[in-house]
Amino acid sequence: MNIKILGSDCPNCQKLESNTKKALEELKMETTVEKITDIQKIMEYNVMSMPVLIVDEKVVIAGSVPDVDQIKEILANYKMSANNQAGACSCNCKC
Known about the structure:
Layout: E1 3-6, H1 11-26, E2 33-36, H2 39-43, E3 52-55, E4 58-62, H3 68-87
Parallel strand pairs: 1-2
Antiparallel strand pairs: 1-3, 3-4
Helix pairs in contact: 1-3
């Protein structure tokens, strides 16, 4: 799982980074969190408000700071979705 936080060093951006790291820790998921502050790189994601949470190159949160439990739910869903895709048969019945 690839996780990125887009934003400046504003309090909301710092809080999203902190909540994301805590959620990963509580889920016992070992992955790095890349923080991107370069405005040119941020513009490549076509987002209008920050902070932004990106999981596997998909914008999942923009312009808000969810709590740790909400982030855990998002990350767990992504992990489960990735596991299902990796283990699913070609008929997509998950047998």
